[in-house]
Amino acid sequence: MRIDLHTHSTASDGTDTPAELVRHAAEAGLDVVALTDHDTTRGYAEAIAALPEGLTLVTGAELSCRVDGISMHLLAYLFDPEEPALLAERELVRDDRVPRAKGMVAKLNALGVPVTWEQVSRIAGGGSVGRPHVASALVELGVVPSVDEAFTEDWLADGGRAHVEKHETDPFEAVRLVKAAGGVTVFAHPAASKRGRTVPESTIAELAAAGLDGIEVDHMDHDPGTRARLRGLAQELGLLTTGSSDYHGSRKTCVLGEYTTDPEVYGEITRRATGAFPVPGTGGV
Ligand code: AMP
Ligand code: ZN
Ligand code: FE
Ligand code: FE
To answer: Is the dihedral of CA 181, 186, 188, 191 positive or negative?
Structure first.
């Protein structure tokens, strides 16, 4: 069984539509794929409608969180998408992304970059708007050669010249909200240091005590030494460990199924979840 528990579609900052994403997941030989768009569930319906036979969809989201001034991402799986408290929190974060993106456009304009909100909004195409969309606009304008190169101090990295913070949820609150909605939580790329400051192990321990289910270990932004350290930490804290591609279509270099999750861990996630069930593909019948 090949299981990839972290992917993005055009519902946030991926470049595959949800339908394309599930088709590509089947072509990549995956048995299970999780759709985890940033702060939104709006890709679910399209992904389910297009789900190929033999592929199972795990519904999820990647929630934007911040603790002690450090941004972090929390993967949430198989929660009830209609549960009002978690829904309200997702909306709060997602809605704040719009004025925040406009703020980054204004900062870029002040730096002499002729980017417009219309351009960023077109690139986002109605999806949960984020820095990768602004980064794509900078690539279009020839300001930087690639999306990755927009994530520097000069431009959009945390604390960079054109960076603006958005509302982000306290992760202890997010863990509580996801649990109350029947879902399971996994701390995404907890040691991805190239993205900015990362939270200390003590915070991961506190999150574990507060009900966090697992940490993502096998991820492109973790080197082998980091993975070994995280695996040890997970064992110490009784946390599940996952692996996933964090696929973003053409906006990032990773491919579907580049890293995968142990079927036993996947089984445990589905056993713990009560808010939703994995959706088996019927080939659109
Ligand atoms: P946002 O949620 O709008 O703050 O954007 C965060 C997203 O930007 C992450 O989910 C990544 O997809 C992307 N990102 C963050 N840091 C980097 C980086 N250093 N290089 C490339 N992409 C990044
Ligand atoms: Zn992303
Ligand atoms: Fe992330
Ligand atoms: Fe992600």
So the answer is: positive
CA-nearest of 22, 3, 56 to 277 is 56
Averaged pLDDT score across all residues of the chain: 97
Q: For a pocket test of ligand 1, which of 37, 129, 195 has the largest count of ligand atoms closer than 8 A to its C-beta? A: 195
Atom of ligand 1 nearest to the CA of 73: 10
Q: How confident is the model at residue 284 (pLDDT cuts 50, 70, 90)?
A: low
Cβ-based neighbours of 98, under 8 Å, separated by 6 or more: 129
**Distance from residue 136's CA to the centre of ligand 1 (Å):** 12
For the residues 126-138, what does the mean pLDDT come to?
Answer: 96
Neighbours of ion ligand 3 (CB under 5 A): 73, 188
Report phi then psi at 261, rounded to 5. -110, 140
- Tell me how far apart the alpha carbons of residues 242 and 66 are, in angstroms, rounded to a whole number: 21
The verdict on the CB of residue 151 being under 6 Å from ligand 1 is yes
Taking CA atoms only, the protein residue closest to ligand 1 atom 2 is 130
Q: Residue 13: CB within 6 Å of ligand 1?
A: yes
Q: Is 24 in the pocket of ligand 1 (CB under 6 A)?
A: no
- For 10, residues 6+ apart whose C-beta sits below 8 A from its C-beta are 16, 17, 18, 43, 125, 127
User: For the residues of 188-227, what is the DSSP string, one character each?
Assistant: -STT-GGGS----HHHHHHHHHTT--EEEEE-TTS-HHHH
